[in-house]
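### Sample
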Amino acid sequence: MSRISVRGFAVASATAVTTVGAVVGVAAGNEPASVGNTEAAAADATIADIPAGAQAQVQTASLTQQADDQSTQADTAALKSAQESARKAAAETAQSKKHAADEAKAKKEAEARNKELAASRSSSRDLGDLVGKSSYTIAETKAIAQQMMAGDQFQCFSNIVDHESGWNYKATNAGSGAYGLVQALPGSKMSSAGSDWQTNPATQIKWGLNYMNERYDSPCGAWSFWQANSWY
C-alpha cells in the first residue's frame, strides 16, 4: 500500500475515533475536539502512528491486493500459454493435412501414369498383332484406327472414312484416282507415311490422321467441314 493510502486510512480512522470521542465528550459536558484539527494531524501520521488494529487492517488490505495482482498475472500467463498451445496444434494439424494431401495427389498421379503406360503397351501389342498381314477385314482396319487416335476422335474419323471408302483400304476412285481409306488424291501422297501405303491400312490411317490434324486441327474438325461441304 502506498504512503497516500496509509495516510488516507489514518485520516479516516482518526476522524472516526474523534467523532466518537466528541459525542462522548458532549455527553460528559466536556468541550468537543475539533474534527478538522484531528484530520490534519492524522494526515501527517505514518503507519507507526496508526493504532495496532488499524495497522492490521492496512496490512491485510495490502496483502489482499498483492494476492489479487498475482492471481491476475497468473491468469494472463495461463491464457497466453493456452493460446500458444492452440496455435501450435493448429499449425501441426494443417501441416499434417497438407502432407497427407500431397501424398494422395502423388499416389493418384503415379497410378494415372502407370495406367497410361499399361494402356500404351497394350495398344502397341494389339497394333503389332494387326499390322503386317496380307489382307485386313473392316473390323481389323477399324481396330487399327481406334488404336492410333484419341477415343473422342475415332467416331469423327470413322464418319469420314464411311463416306469416302466404306473402310476399304484398297478403294480406288475411277474418275479422280483418289485411293485408300481416306481417298488421298493422288494416292501416292500417302508415301510420306510409309512405302506400303497401298497395302497397309495403318499407313493410310497415319497419313489421314496427320492430314486432318494439320488442316482441321482434328478429325472432328475435318468432319464438321465435310458435313458442310461433302468433302474435306
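The chain is about 70% helix and 0% strand. This sample (Lytic transglycosylase domain-containing protein) is used throughout the tutorial notebook.
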